Amino acid sequence: MGVVNVTPDSFSDGGEWFEPEAAIGHGRELLAAGADLLDIGGESTRPGAERPSVEEELRRVLPVVRELASAGAVVSIDTMRAEVAGAALDAGASLVNDVSGGLADDDMAGVVADAGAPFVVMHWRGHSADMQSRAIYADVVTEVCAELLERLDALQDKGIRGENLVVDPGFGFAKTAAHNWSLLRRLDEVLALGHPVLVGTSRKTFLGRLGLAEGADPHPPTERDLATAVTSFHAARHGAWAVRVHDVASTMRALDVADALGGAR
Ligand code: PMM
Questions:
Q1: Which protein residue's CA is at the shortest distance from atom 3 of ligand 1?
Q2: Whether the Cβ atoms of residue 57 and residue 79 lie closer than 8 Å to each other
Q3: Nearest CA to ligand 1 atom 16
Q4: Is 186 in the active site?
Q5: How far apart, in whole angstroms, are the C-alpha atoms of residue 15 and residue 46?
Q6: Which of 1, 16, 122 for a ligand 1 pocket mutation test, highest count of atoms within 8 Å of Cβ?
Q7: What is the pTM assigned to this prediction?
Q8: Domain 2-260 class, CATH top level
Q9: N or C: fewer beta carbons within 10 Å in the chain?
């Protein structure tokens, strides 16, 4: 899954593809590099980010969704808003990726259920502004799995079919670096929930801190693609359904290695 952020302020690539033409061109490049699907988002979820209005989010994503879907791409809409999800599905998106797992907007489950679309349920404990204050766990993997199970039950009660639900442990969302590493190490427990698993470690800060002294500034996001490819390789070897990445080319090489070694275990 290649990331197309149509935002001025994403931590990983903020502003680079903010204009629709640039975002569409970037989406085409990611497809050429081997992406099977494109995740298009108009709201930055970096810690402390301000939310755009619904109108602004629609203005950012719809032309990009429409153009890339009509060019044949499988498009995922990355949004926490039911109105944006519905409009993107009408414009040709095939799945909805909601970092709040349906918690941020009560209408989300109904829109997704009515469309019969696949839905990515990410583990989430609140909006970015203060999410890191919620990174408190006795056992992160057990608690993330339990909270995801609760969401899976609630979403099915609201009419989304179980086979349409994908889970994501939400790397970096209300998680410290140690929490992220535990989740990667024990990905089998997330897979045991019995749903396809999406893993999104791409360019996240815990990868930028590798090899550096405590307190040193992390490597910039664009220098985190090698570490991203390695964590994505790990996820693929353990049976992840998809990995969400910014630099598709480098992760494709890592997934080629996973395939050559026998694909998923
Ligand atoms: N991470 C970001 C945005 N959307 N969606 C899912 N399902 N999983 C993630 O880990 C995830 C996401 C933040 O990264 P970005 O700002 O670089 O897009």
A1: 45
A2: yes
A3: 10
A4: no
A5: 13
A6: 122
A7: 0.96
A8: alpha beta
A9: C
